[in-house]
Design goal:
Elements lengths: L8 E9 L10 E4 L2 H6 L17 H18 L6 E4 L6 E5 L4 E8 L8
Antiparallel strand pairs: 1-5, 2-4, 3-4
Length: 115
Protein backbone atom coordinates (compact mmCIF):
# COMPACT_ATOMS: atom_id res chain seq x y z
CA UNK A 1 0.00 0.00 0.00
CA UNK A 2 1.42 3.41 -0.94
CA UNK A 3 1.49 6.28 1.57
CA UNK A 4 -1.36 8.80 1.61
CA UNK A 5 -0.62 12.23 0.19
CA UNK A 6 -4.02 13.74 0.88
CA UNK A 7 -6.56 13.11 3.63
CA UNK A 8 -9.34 14.95 5.46
CA UNK A 9 -8.88 16.59 8.85
CA UNK A 10 -11.95 17.48 10.91
CA UNK A 11 -11.70 20.35 13.39
CA UNK A 12 -13.37 19.19 16.61
CA UNK A 13 -12.90 22.39 18.64
CA UNK A 14 -11.42 25.85 18.30
CA UNK A 15 -10.94 28.06 21.38
CA UNK A 16 -8.83 30.93 22.66
CA UNK A 17 -6.71 30.06 25.70
CA UNK A 18 -4.63 32.11 28.14
CA UNK A 19 -1.65 30.97 30.17
CA UNK A 20 -2.74 29.69 33.56
CA UNK A 21 0.29 30.97 35.49
CA UNK A 22 1.98 33.98 33.85
CA UNK A 23 5.65 34.41 34.78
CA UNK A 24 6.71 36.99 37.38
CA UNK A 25 7.09 40.50 36.02
CA UNK A 26 4.55 40.03 33.25
CA UNK A 27 3.82 41.65 30.82
CA UNK A 28 7.23 41.36 29.24
CA UNK A 29 8.50 42.85 25.99
CA UNK A 30 11.00 40.70 24.11
CA UNK A 31 13.14 42.17 21.32
CA UNK A 32 13.45 40.35 18.01
CA UNK A 33 16.80 38.76 17.30
CA UNK A 34 18.73 39.73 14.18
CA UNK A 35 17.65 36.42 12.62
CA UNK A 36 13.99 37.26 13.31
CA UNK A 37 14.47 40.63 11.62
CA UNK A 38 16.07 39.05 8.53
CA UNK A 39 13.32 36.46 8.13
CA UNK A 40 10.59 39.09 8.53
CA UNK A 41 7.40 38.49 10.46
CA UNK A 42 5.53 35.21 10.30
CA UNK A 43 2.91 33.34 12.28
CA UNK A 44 4.13 30.64 14.61
CA UNK A 45 2.25 27.36 14.70
CA UNK A 46 2.86 24.43 16.94
CA UNK A 47 1.42 21.15 15.69
CA UNK A 48 1.26 18.07 17.85
CA UNK A 49 0.45 14.69 16.35
CA UNK A 50 -0.71 12.03 18.77
CA UNK A 51 -1.91 8.49 18.24
CA UNK A 52 -5.42 7.88 19.51
CA UNK A 53 -5.30 6.59 23.07
CA UNK A 54 -7.18 3.49 24.13
CA UNK A 55 -9.80 5.79 25.70
CA UNK A 56 -10.47 7.38 22.27
CA UNK A 57 -10.16 10.80 20.66
CA UNK A 58 -12.52 12.65 23.06
CA UNK A 59 -10.29 11.71 26.02
CA UNK A 60 -7.22 13.00 24.16
CA UNK A 61 -9.01 16.28 23.29
CA UNK A 62 -9.96 16.81 26.96
CA UNK A 63 -6.36 16.16 28.08
CA UNK A 64 -4.94 18.61 25.53
CA UNK A 65 -7.44 21.33 26.50
CA UNK A 66 -6.67 20.82 30.20
CA UNK A 67 -2.87 20.98 29.79
CA UNK A 68 -2.59 23.78 27.19
CA UNK A 69 -2.85 26.71 29.69
CA UNK A 70 0.09 25.31 31.70
CA UNK A 71 2.08 24.78 28.47
CA UNK A 72 1.49 28.44 27.59
CA UNK A 73 2.79 29.45 31.03
CA UNK A 74 6.11 27.79 30.18
CA UNK A 75 6.29 29.20 26.63
CA UNK A 76 4.86 32.63 27.33
CA UNK A 77 5.70 34.33 23.97
CA UNK A 78 2.98 32.12 22.40
CA UNK A 79 0.37 34.26 24.21
CA UNK A 80 1.92 37.52 23.05
CA UNK A 81 1.60 39.72 20.02
CA UNK A 82 4.18 41.04 17.57
CA UNK A 83 4.04 44.83 17.56
CA UNK A 84 6.29 47.61 16.28
CA UNK A 85 8.28 49.53 18.90
CA UNK A 86 6.73 53.00 19.09
CA UNK A 87 10.05 54.85 19.02
CA UNK A 88 12.08 53.02 16.37
CA UNK A 89 9.52 50.82 14.58
CA UNK A 90 11.41 47.54 15.04
CA UNK A 91 9.15 44.56 15.79
CA UNK A 92 9.04 43.15 19.30
CA UNK A 93 6.93 40.57 21.12
CA UNK A 94 4.61 41.92 23.80
CA UNK A 95 3.99 38.95 26.11
CA UNK A 96 0.73 40.13 27.63
CA UNK A 97 -1.21 36.85 27.92
CA UNK A 98 -3.71 38.02 25.31
CA UNK A 99 -4.50 34.49 24.16
CA UNK A 100 -3.45 31.69 21.86
CA UNK A 101 -5.69 29.75 19.53
CA UNK A 102 -6.10 26.07 20.29
CA UNK A 103 -7.52 23.92 17.52
CA UNK A 104 -8.19 20.26 18.19
CA UNK A 105 -8.63 18.22 15.04
CA UNK A 106 -9.03 14.59 14.10
CA UNK A 107 -7.74 12.79 11.01
CA UNK A 108 -9.28 9.40 10.37
CA UNK A 109 -6.06 7.86 9.06
CA UNK A 110 -3.29 6.01 10.83
CA UNK A 111 -0.10 8.05 11.23
CA UNK A 112 1.98 5.27 9.65
CA UNK A 113 -0.14 5.59 6.46
CA UNK A 114 0.76 9.28 5.98
CA UNK A 115 3.80 10.34 3.98
Amino acid sequence: MSPLWCFEVEVAAQTLVRASDPPPGFPVVLPFSNLDLILNSFNISLIMVNPSPAAGFPALAVAVRASFPMFLSRFFPFVGRVVADGDIGIPEITCNNTDAELMVAHASVALMDVD
